[in-house]
Design brief:
Layout (H helix, E strand, L loop, with lengths): L7 H12 L6 E2 H11 L5 H4 L5 E3 L2 E2 L3 H9 L25 H4 L23 H10 L5 E4 L6 H11 L4 E5 L6 H5 E6 L2 E6 L1 H8 L2 E5 L12 H4 L4 E3 L4 E3 L6 E6 L7 H5 L8 H5 L3 E4 L5 H14 L5 H19 L9 H14 L2 H9 L4 H14 L1 H6 L19 E4 L6 H6 L3 E3 L4 E5 H6 L1 H4 L5 E3 L7 E3 L3
Parallel strand pairs: 4-11, 4-12, 5-8, 8-11
Antiparallel strand pairs: 1-3, 2-3, 6-7, 9-10, 13-15, 13-16, 14-15, 16-17
Helix pairs in contact: 1-4, 6-7, 13-14, 13-15, 14-17, 15-16, 16-17
Length: 467
């Protein structure tokens, strides 16, 4: 760093710092305080000199020592923070003093808070290894809704004391939202960094949440995805990524269209060149029943409604529905997030069945009723509670034979699913049906359709299965 010639304006700034007892290095907040108190202009000869920048918001001003010695003053010692050095190289000045002045926001801490109910599972350890390495290694995390993709990344950052910047992608997200733009503040237009630039400067983890919702506008991050600096054309400045900076993206699809995009409305096919810049793709699944029960029990402890048997029944219920969903016999699913909502409802209303009903009310009537019916069959306590209407006595069902006929209650919206698994339509009785052999072979699928069996020998007697 070459010491510049001191003109009257620079001497006035140094004299004001000396009067305040400040010494080198100067904090950004100290520079601001001096400017306001003594009505001085922004010392661009300091803040725009990259050789003076020691770390985020810290500047080396050795000229202060001369002023302190000449005036025999005792400085206030400022200890520079032990942060990773940021490198910001600017092109020749463009009279953007006011705007560039706001480039570095006063952000104290971006480390997320730990969630005491969180239980690590799935790809947690693999992602943690990458984040702890501080290497630039972009990762694309895909999986069904509500299985903890975003929370997993957030909690890894919390445990490892890494700063975390989350950018929620929507159809309206554009370059200004990601990189930054001019905002109106106190009647003046000032520059405000976007989440991508903030993460680059601070060496933080940038999470592009629901990245498949806007595949066009996120193309502005192409150079960032390669680990290269980004040129902010609106302020004529390059920003270089600080060590530790990394990009992770979460999405319900893999950005390639298909059946996944049909269920998750709004998702689109992403640019192949953008997808190719992710080093790896991680398929994050729902937790196992044992892990999910830990999560549910932790939530119950927090809500002060711990009920081990209810937790077990909820997890059995969600596991059964997911198996049915994966086999194509059901179009909706119970997520881990949905179970958490049910637990909160249970903590408030203190009623198992009521909590389940409130939790599944978002589904259409057929799905809602089938989910509630399945739960009542799994929970003996609830089954007794819902026995408000006398149930007709049905003869005990003898062992079902392969050639028995099993009738199904198939909603119109699910007829293609039933047909694809071998169900047949009886035009006379207007009923979908399968054989006993088919029922026994794929019981988990057919139980969703309230199967009723007619034995080959006692065709006049109807038996309700799975009750």
């Amino acid at each position: 760093m070459t010491t510049p010639l001191l003109n009257q304006r620079r001497e006035s700034f140094l004299d004001a710092c000396a009067k305040e007892g400040y010494s080198s290095p100067l904090k950004r907040s100290q520079i601001k305080a001096v400017r306001i108190k003594f009505s001085l202009p922004m010392p661009l000869w300091i803040v725009q000199d990259d050789t003076r920048r020691l770390s985020h918001g810290m500047y080396d001003v050795p000229e202060l020592a001369t002023f302190l010695l000449e005036r025999n003053m005792t400085p206030t010692v400022t200890t520079p923070p032990s942060t990773i050095t940021e490198v910001v190289a600017s092109l020749p000045a463009m009279n953007l003093a006011r705007q560039v002045e706001s480039l570095e926001q006063d952000i104290e801490n971006l480390i997320p808070k730990p969630i005491d109910t969180y239980v690590p599972y799935g790809s947690y350890k693999d992602i943690e290894k990458v984040i702890k390495s501080t290497r630039f290694y972009p990762m694309y995390i895909t999986g069904l809704s509500g299985n903890g993709k975003t929370t997993m990344v957030q909690q890894i950052c919390a445990v490892n004391k890494r700063e975390f910047v989350r950018a929620n992608i929507t159809k309206e997200t554009d370059e200004d939202d990601l990189l930054g733009g001019f905002r109106l503040l106190n009647g003046e237009s000032v520059w405000v960094d976007g989440p991508a630039v903030i993460a680059m400067k601070r060496g933080a983890i940038l999470l592009l949440d629901e990245v498949d919702l806007n595949p066009d506008k996120i193309m502005c991050l192409q150079p960032v995805m390669e680990g290269n600096p980004i040129f902010l054309k609106k302020i004529n400045r390059y920003v270089y990524p600080t060590k530790g900076f990394n990009i992770l993206a979460t999405a319900n699809t893999k950005g390639q269209g298909g059946e996944e995009s049909v269920k998750f409305i709004g998702t689109s096919i992403m640019n192949e060149a953008f997808l190719e810049r992710f080093a790896i793709t991680i398929e994050h699944e729902y937790p196992s029943r044992a892990v999910e029960k830990k999560i549910v029990c932790n939530m119950m402890k927090r809500e002060e409604c711990l009920d081990d048997s209810f937790a077990e029944n909820l997890c059995r219920w969600s596991e059964t529905i997911r198996k049915t969903y994966y086999e194509g016999a059901c179009e909706d699913i119970i997520t881990t997030r949905r179970l958490e909502h049910i637990v909160v409802a249970f903590g408030i209303f203190k009623d198992r069945l009521d909590a389940v009903k409130k939790g599944v009310a978002r589904f259409n009537k057929i799905t809602k009723d089938s989910f509630i019916d399945l739960y009542t069959k799994l929970d003996a306590e609830v089954a007794v509670a819902v026995a408000e209407i006398p149930i007709p006595v049905v003869p005990a069902h003898p062992p079902i034979e392969d050639d028995d006929r099993v009738d199904l209650d198939v909603p119109f919206a699910h007829k293609d699913t039933a047909r694809s698994h071998g169900a047949r339509w009886d035009a006379t009785t207007k009923t979908w049906h399968i054989s006993g052999y088919q029922y026994k072979s794929m019981k988990a699928i057919w139980d969703v359709f309230t199967p009723k069996s007619f034995t080959s020998t006692l065709s006049s007697i109807q038996y309700t299965l799975n009750s």
